Amino acid sequence: MLGSNAPWVQSPGSNTPGSKQPGLKSPGALRTMKNRVFEDCGFGCQVHHLTYCLIVAYATQRTLFLKSQGWNYNRNGWHAVFQPVSKTCTDVVPDNNTMLSAAAPNANRFSVVHLPILDLVSPYHPYTPNAIPKDLSERLIRAHGEPAVWWVGQFASYLLRPLDPLQEFLVQAKRKLRFRNKSPIVGVHIRRTDKYLEASFYSVEEYFKFVELFFEQEERRRGTKLQRRAFIATDDPSVIDEARRKMSTCIRSEFETSSKNWIVTAGLETVTQLPWFFYICSYEILGDPTVAETASLPSRYSFDSLRGIVLDIHVLSKCSYLVCTFSSNWGFTLDFLKANLVAVTIDGASVMVGNVNGVLQRLKDMISPEIITWHCLNHRLELAVGDTVKKVGGGVNHVCRLAYELMQTDHTDASHASLDREWVFVHGQGPESVAVEAHEGKA
């Protein structure tokens, strides 16, 4: 929930998600919603699917039943690792002929409905993220820079309440990492093993350029020198060793207005090439290569891997700031096929954005060969009144995005705590803008 210094904190029993205890209803008046944990995507993707299911159950006042026996991370199911969604309704409702998709127009007539994965839902439920409840909207908008992120974070946090064995593992693992969040620390997520197929490669130095920017801004704000500390979550153990080797020495590049890149060296080793003034000084790098090893492709769907990824998400969410790329699992929905849709933005000119394989052609094939794809601030569009510009972002790094959502539950407003492209819920209702007057494009 919001921190104690928020302008509208309410007492227990108030009209907030935590007080309503999502997932619980009286068994005597049971209307249910069923969901399976899908095995065709990773843990972060699965959590986001469950989050959407719980939000829909909450909004429609149904009880969510989770079928997870045979789960690819733990064959005993979700509730062998995390606390049950409901403490009173734990038996799975048997399949019967009354079960249909909750997206169906007549779903309210049936006591049991099921939720397909969000990719397949059309049209969207009115409460699918980025939607927030109307009764909370005014206060949320006033209190938080990204109300939808806060809203999703409450449900994700509820779903990820660990059982005692996992909780003890997290406590011991954080102690081993020497992780403490009393002083600023930046969380960095670098995924490598299977992402070369989906997004551009970024060096360790490219990530740390933004880590250093955060510390420089914090030092100006606080008026004091800060120790540089960063936690690295990765699926490649060599990344942690590389960061410790390269970031433990103070290095510098000089600002150059021409296109020439300056070569930066630490000792005899060439570290990187950077086209601007840049410092990196004596970083303490936190990270566990053994955890990274469990996230590698051969062992990704294992219980050790599950514990490792939960640890990464948990620690990232406790950091002061996040730096990562939202680059994986690119996909698009057909929800925005409108006659007046003239443009789609694919990255918002955000930091660390490269060429995403096949995205432009897929947009043209799916929507129209004439569609304008706007991917740089130097591009300007000519719009007529009523033209719609839609931001699509099916592609997400679920781990970093989930950590960012959970971060909101520890702060009054942590919407400023990431340098990445803006947040969208995968396959959710992305932001859309409509031109209210004609506009002539200018370069």
What does this structure look like?
This protein has 443 residues and is of the alpha/beta class. It is built from 11 helices and 16 strands. The chain has helices spanning 17-20, 43-60, 134-143, 147-159, 164-177, 204-222, 237-247, 289-294, 303-317, 359-366, 398-407, and strands at residues 32-36, 63-67, 100-101, 112-114, 186-190, 229-234, 251-253, 262-266, 269-274, 278-280, 284-286, 321-324, 341-345, 372-374, 388-391, 432-434. The strands form 5 sheets. A 4-stranded parallel sheet has the order 2-1-4-3, covered by helices on one side. The protein has a 4-stranded parallel sheet with strand order 11-6-5-12, sandwiched between helices. It has a 4-stranded mixed sheet with strand order 14-13-15-16, with helices on one face. Helix 2 (43-60) packs across helix 4 and helix 4 crosses helix 11 (398-407). The two termini are 44 Å apart.
Share of helix among residues? Answer: 25-40%
- What is the number of strand segments? 16
Shape descriptor: globular
The SSE string, one letter per element, is HEHEEEHHHEHEHEEEEEHHEEHEEHE
Strand order of the largest sheet: 2-1-4-3
The averaged pLDDT comes out at 69
Number of helices: 11
Structural class call reads alpha/beta
Instruction: Give the percentage of residues in beta strands.
Output: 5-15%
Rg value: 23 Å
Largest sheet: 4 strands, parallel
List the uncertain runs: 1-16, 21-29, 251-280, 328-359, 374-380
Distance between the termini: 44 Å
